[in-house]
Amino acid sequence: MTVMNSKKTSWIRTLIGILILLIFLFPVYWMINISLQSAGSAVVSPIYPKSPTFSGYLAAIRAQSGPLLTSLIVAIGATLVSLIIATPAAYALARYRIKGSSTILLVILLSQMIPTIVVANALYSAYSDLGLLNTVIGLILADASLGIPFSILILQTFMKNIPQAIIEASWIDGAGAFRTFVSIALPMSRNAIVTAGLFSFLFAWGDFLFALTLTTSEEVRPITLSLYTYVGAYVQDWGMVMATAVLASLPAIVLLVVAQRFVSAGVAAGSVK
């Protein structure tokens, strides 16, 4: 009787889980559904594309290829800047006795709580004086300001758990501080680095406030802002809008699928018996 109740409960939980999953995935399905239909209203469209067409994707590529490329360059650049700065900073905070390191980590944590719009408004004035408005470099640096603190917090936690015996063994073999960092800490922190890089990329790829505040022309316009301005106008071609949304979602989906095994893996599992 107990076994039957347990199986029944398991089936109920499975069905509830599937129902919740379908609810969350329905907007994604509707986006793909509309993208495969001809121009028209997204409200009165059929539940599935009766005559699928890729005209929306062709139109999206023609109209939004520039913003998509800009977003890709900005996201990759912001990710590289974040990792180049955050990785050695996290290693220093994790492995060396730095006076006030706890205060530094607290300040980094508090910086994550500052609303992005506040930072964007402050950067606008500075960028105006430095001539960085409407530039890819400006967007990269702005988006990196989101990725660097988050990356430091993740990497510092992982690097702090690297066994001291491995570090000392490298010192005995004659490796200096830099060689230990490059040859020991970086390979062992691969999973953490991939995780930090993934989130830094997603922060930059999905950024809207920095793009809205720090760009005023169409020459440098990420896909998030380009899609917003297009939808804000009088829209009749919802197929193109949804096709653009699908294309904008692909990089994030691909990265999440590729990097998922690194995100959950341990940093030093099995290194020391």
UniProtKB/TrEMBL annotation:
It is a multi-pass membrane protein. Keywords: Cell membrane, Membrane, Transmembrane, Transmembrane helix, Transport. The chain crosses the membrane at residues 12-32, 68-92, 104-124, 136-155, 192-212, 238-259. Residues 68-259 form the ABC transmembrane type-1 domain. InterPro entries: BP-dep_ABC_trans_perm, MetI-like, MetI-like_sf. It is found in: Cell membrane. SUPFAM superfamilies: MetI-like (SSF161098). Belongs to the binding-protein-dependent transport system permease family. This is Carbohydrate ABC transporter membrane protein 2, CUT1 family. It comes from Schaalia radingae.
